[in-house]
Amino acid sequence: MFFTRHHLPILLFATLFIGGCSRDLADSDISVNTLDPQENIDTDSSVDTGPSSDSNNDASTGIETETGPDTSTNTNTDPSTGSNTDTATNPDTATNTTDTAEEAITIPGQAAWLTMNSNIDLINGRADHVVKWQKPQGANGQFWRVLLNGDDITGFMAIEQTQGTTQSGLISIRLDQVGTQILQVQLCQTAMLSPYCSVSSELTLNATEDLSQYQSDQGERLFSSWDPSSCLTAKAGVIELAMCEDHLSQAWLIEESQIKSANDVRLCIQADNLDYSSGLVLASCNGGSLQQWEYKAGSISNQGWSLDINTANQDVIIWHSHTGINQQWKTSLEVTEPETNTSTSDGDWARIDVPKSGPYGSYEFKVPAAQNWVNTGLFLRQGQSAVITASGQWSVKGGALYDANGHATEQSRGCQQGELTARLGLYYKDPAISCIGTAGTFMAHEDGILFVGSVVSNDLGETYEERADATGSVLVTVSSTGDTVPTVDYEDAPYYDYVGVSSGWVEIRSPNNILTLPIATAIHDASKLTEAVQRLDDIYQQHKILRGKTPYHGQPIRWFADTKDAPGWMLAGNPVRMDPALVSIDSGDRITLAAEPGNNDWGFAHELGHNFNFAGGDWYYTTYGNLEAWPNIFTLHAIDKLGLVERTDVNDCSKAKAEYLAKGVNDNGFGGAWQGLCFLSEFTDQYGWEIWQNFYQKFNDQPGHGWGFLRDRLNEASGQNVTPIFNSWNVPL
């Protein structure tokens, strides 16, 4: 504690001895016994009430004069040198010419409290409190001090002496402890501990502290990349990992060199030690080396050591810095959640941002004719319904525009061509498509995500760019009490609270790809989602470099698990329809593991390769050389440029070519996808990837098909005569 004095304390170096404690001071004689070494005269101050015998072993002879009411004779015999004779006299006949009598010591009167506030509020952990007292009557004191809970907190201070019996004092003391404090004032005659002091009545102080003054609303949560549903948490002063919630125990102020608790900004994260497996605690911020943290590139580090999650028990510990995901953290300010009841567009493409759970409510959004189905963000369970209205004009195959009721004379899939339709899911050749037009009610025959869009052809026709000439859009409103399917940006995917998604489905969206995932998979693979979708985007971009053009007007490619009629492992298009195993946590081939080490993503790159083959609707050329071989030119290019692991089970091309030629046939597909790839790869081996970039650069403006067409275009693309390669495969030109 600290205090401010208004009176300076006094130190006394003399000592006052008080005798005759067996009698009242007023009835006692007080005398001083003084020894003079020159005259050897003892002055004995005592109170004698009867005979006594003194033995004095002294080397010389002197005379002792005793003053007091003594009625006896004392004999002092010194066996070594002689005897001393004590002569008792009455007080009036004392031979000491010095008057040794002193005034009696009196206890000061009691100090009384002047008006003071007994309720104290600590601000920033302390409060200055003024102590005021007055003694209205009784003997005056010479010194005073303040006692707090019985302890001296000020030291003795001189009391200003005034005429009369009234005395007072004032001092400011500093309090820094919460709770009940007992205050007293002591008045004394001497500046030392003595029984001749008075003490005031107790004054009870109630010191409280509003802890909210140390809280901050600027804190950020720190999500674990290893388990994005968990956040860095302070619990009973220990740093640990816990399920993320909106609580100040998980809010942090990340400053230049410290991480403070937003629940109490006086406390900082501190390592027990910078060593393997050391723990972390909250401690008073002191700027020490164990509190020096740098948050950079997702890592929280201190001199080569980082905040780490022990994946065996989920403890937060110190470990030597590495690039592992269990040392990666992301702040809540870096994670964005969609706003409620809004609709946005991703470029020219509709995207409906909805909350994690229903009811859905009502949303209005644009549906372009060229978009391969729009996820409304609505999840309907069997028997639930949605009211849908639309206004505006479009055309799915070019030409004159019409409203959402579609083309007046042409039909497709039981509706007018270009009519606004609704469907649950995007199952291949699903007949359960409802014609909506400008207004209608959709009734769910089963559980599923509601998609809307213009009907143009069957699902396979859409794969081959049936919407290539589509134009215009309609403004659609969907209203329902159903549940929601949120869309999450792929960069935020590891940190999203999937547990709160009640529909069981979510979409992860990047600039070039969309993954429609069950919640169980999203939760299980949350930490892998950003990198997985980024890998698909990287492959997409490499395909774009090779082709110089994007499929489906550049809209993102959706990856959708077809649980009804999956046509094989995967079927290209938009969406790319997949076997349900590719979104199941029980499959090691699932799409959410696309970026795992050692994965070259051949299948995903292959399906995207198909889409780029089909870009613009001119795809028939791929039937020369094998429809399944041409996508793998894109696949091999992406693997090469991205430095992915090469596939080791590709057939030996020399053997494959020899076996094909031995049959003596002329097959446009060379009898299989691998033989076709061996044929196309000979051009890559001799002329590099530039031959395909040059080939597509002209093809995008002047498409065509046939063996002669391909030979001539590849001659131009390579700048040389490639006819010998065609001849070596027995291709009829």
Overview of this protein structure:
The structure is a single chain. This protein is of the alpha+beta class. Strands 9, 11, 12, 13, 15, 16 and 17 form a seven-stranded mixed beta sheet that branches. Strands 43-44-45-46-48-47 form a six-stranded mixed beta sheet. Helix 6 (653-662) crosses helix 7 (673-687) and helix 8 crosses helix 9. It is elongated, with a radius of gyration of 48 Å. The protein starts with a strand and ends in a 5-residue tail after the last helix.
What proportion strand?
25-35%
Number of helices: 10
Q: What coarse outline follows from CA principal-axis ratios? A: elongated
- Proportion in helices: 10-25%
Radius of gyration: 48 Å
Give the class from helix and strand content and strand pairing: alpha+beta
Beginning-to-end CA distance, first to last residue: 102 Å
Uncertain spans: 1-102, 336-345
Please supply descriptive tags for the structure shown above:
seven-stranded mixed β-sheet, six-stranded mixed β-sheet, disordered N terminus
How would you summarize this macromolecular structure in one to three sentences?
This protein is α+β, with helices and mostly antiparallel strands and 733 residues long. Strands 9, 11, 12, 13, 15, 16 and 17 form a 7-stranded mixed β-sheet that branches. The chain has a 6-stranded mixed β-sheet with strand order 43-44-45-46-48-47. A 5-stranded antiparallel β-sheet has the order 38-37-40-33-42, with no helix packed on it.
How do the strands and helices of this protein lay out in sequence?
Elements: E1 3-4, E2 35-36, E3 41-44, E4 65-67, E5 75-78, E6 82-85, E7 87-89, E8 112-113, E9 119-122, E10 127-135, E11 143-148, E12 151-152, E13 157-158, E14 167-175, E15 179-188, E16 197-199, E17 203-209, E18 222-224, E19 230-235, E20 238-243, E21 252-254, E22 259-261, E23 264-271, E24 280-284, E25 294-296, E26 299-302, E27 305-310, E28 315-320, E29 329-331, E30 342-346, E31 349-353, E32 361-368, E33 374-380, E34 385-395, E35 411-412, E36 415-416, E37 420-424, E38 433-435, E39 439-443, E40 448-454, H1 459-463, E41 471-480, E42 483-484, E43 487-489, E44 505-509, E45 513-518, H2 519-524, H3 526-547, E46 557-561, E47 570-571, E48 576-578, H4 602-613, H5 630-642, H6 653-662, H7 673-687, H8 690-699, H9 707-718, H10 723-728
Helix pairs in contact: 3-4, 3-5, 4-5, 6-7, 8-9
